[in-house]
Amino acid sequence: MNKHINLLLLATENLLRHGTKSVVVCLCIIAILTPFITAIAISEGVREQSLISVNAGADLYLTFDEFGRNSAIPLKHLDEIKKVYGVTRAIPRIIGRGYLQNKLAIIIGINKEDIPESVSFISGRVFENAGEVVIGHELARHFRLNPGDQFSMRCQQRKVFTVVGIFSADSGIWGASLIGMSFNDAGALFGKQDVATDIQLHTLPGHNSAIATDLYDIFQHEAYRLQDKQIIELYVKKGFMLKEGIFSALYVVAFALGVPAILVASGFGLSERKKEIGIMKATGWQTLEVLELISFEQFLISLLGASIAIVLSLFWIKIFHGVFIAPFFIAEMPMLPAFTLPARFLPLPCLLSFFVAFLLTMVGSVYSTWRASTVSPVVSMKS
């Protein structure tokens, strides 16, 4: 055991003695691992927040079906839906997008009494009268809007809205560029009256099958779609898996370009290392001991590089708000977000990053070390 500890201490001393090589290899590891760790952390954080929203949402989502996709549902059957046994609440919503000057915003139309209690405000209050809206903190910051200010949107410039409240950042990333208004105002904005994007159904546990049967009787001559919470959750998970897969595919290209840099950097000062190995062999070192020493060196440099990469990822997300990389995982996100993104630093990606770095540095050094340690010490010292 003492021998292994001594080899570990000697490996640390070698890294400090060959400072230039250690710094170069460490920088290569950091450059490769930091974007990967940052991207996975953002993706996992946004996925978790999305799933929390899904789990806190309705049990069933009712829409019409058009060409195999969701379409607006008329409200003529809303009273019948509310009377279905097992349905505790039926909430019609309008969800769309529109431009506030040059910035794309998410628009939600919902009745005041159906607004979730979890929504909090930086300032102001919830809308109560026609023409009143609440806006996300990102829109408020970008356009310098405060409660009492008025604006109109590109899709309906004749209609003037009055800001009465500003969403807090604690409401989630989805509220950053959100405009919330009454259901009727949203219908007038989009020119769609007496229809909803969907109807959220909150139900009693175990009644979804019976509710689906009753809805079939109501909509038996119309094309409708009924989706439960599990299907919505599956859509969310598939969407993030697709984005992570696309990012991973693109990252493989950058990773492949970085591998030669690590391999070259690991062999930096190779002739000097051969002389050292020759001296070790001449003084009685065994080949396995030399390889163990090199392995300890690569372990330490990989651990240092991966640790620094994780710390830099934390700074990238918490201080710089995922600049340049966040838009890849969050649609319509500006290149320079003004708020902290949700992120989860899971153990598996961090451990995987360390093992990848360790594998690359080992590939770049073990073979050359083995070659140098298996020849005559005289030959190694002359290299």
TrEMBL record:
| InterPro entries, per database record | ABC3_permease_C (IPR003838), Lipoprotein-release_system (IPR051447), MacB_PCD (IPR025857)
On whether Transmembrane helix is a keyword of this UniProt record, the answer is yes
Annotated TM spans: 22-42, 160-183, 246-270, 348-370
Question: What keywords is this UniProt entry annotated with?
Answer: Cell membrane, Membrane, Transmembrane, Transmembrane helix
Q: Domain ABC3 transporter permease C-terminal: where?
A: 250-377
Cell location: Cell membrane
Biological process terms in GO annotation: lipoprotein localization to outer membrane
Pfam families to which the protein is assigned, alphabetical: FtsX (PF02687), MacB_PCD (PF12704)
Annotated Gene Ontology cellular component terms:
plasma membrane protein complex
> Which coarse location class applies to the principal site listed for this UniProt protein?
membrane
Positions of the MacB-like periplasmic core domain? 36-190
Tell me the superkingdom of the source.
Bacteria
Q: How does it sit in the membrane?
A: Multi-pass membrane protein
Q: Which family does it belong to?
A: Belongs to the ABC-4 integral membrane protein family. LolC/E subfamily.
Name under which the protein is recorded: ABC transporter permease component
Q: Native species of this protein?
A: Candidatus Brocadia fulgida
